[in-house]
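S1.2 Input.
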Amino acid sequence: MACRVAVTGSDRGSAIAWSFIKFLLRLHKTRPFFVSPSNFKETIDFDALVISGGIDISPSVYGKKTEIAKTDPKRDAMEMKLLENALKRNIPVLGICRGMQMINVFYGGTLHLEIHELDLNRPHPKTPLPKKKIFINPHTKLREILKVDECSVNALHHQAIEKIAPKLIAAAHDENGITQAIEHQNERFVMGVQWHPEFLPYSPLQRRIFKAFVKNIKDLYNK
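S1.3 Output.
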């Protein structure tokens, strides 16, 4: 029986990302299903979790009093609960863009509210095309998966990790030294990437992330 993968998103605005993620997960013989605040139930059954990109996380979730215009507190609460359930069961978790930031926040990390307010050595692009160079840190799961020291990725975010949470490590960084991937030091597969690998399905390198994620699901349930 195919593994059930919960993929989170917003009630509105997540259709494109969901369609790409669904395609890549189905390509690896899993059964992805979409979860948003309007259909979320704490009792849903799933074998792995993907937290997708999208709207900014409310700063109050990670202890900042600043208010920003567009947030979705219901989605924040939903994803925090899903992460809690997934990590209690030690099942694989993949965070994409906002999803990486949510993993960091869940474990106690913080975020920069606006990258462009930082002192950058190189311009921060905003593009769905792979025009941003990142560097993969050695001795990380991501390095084992991608098998390269650097690669080019897309960039659709305007926030970034400020403080990395305890138990997490940086797995990649960009030319400005900003964290581009994180992973848990002890859990079997808890990983976040700041870019959108689902929007690069033509890249064998980026498909390796989904392949490794699904392999971890199947290894867990085939024991």
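S1.4 Remarks. Residues 4-221 form a domain with the Rossmann fold fold (CATH 3.40.50.880).
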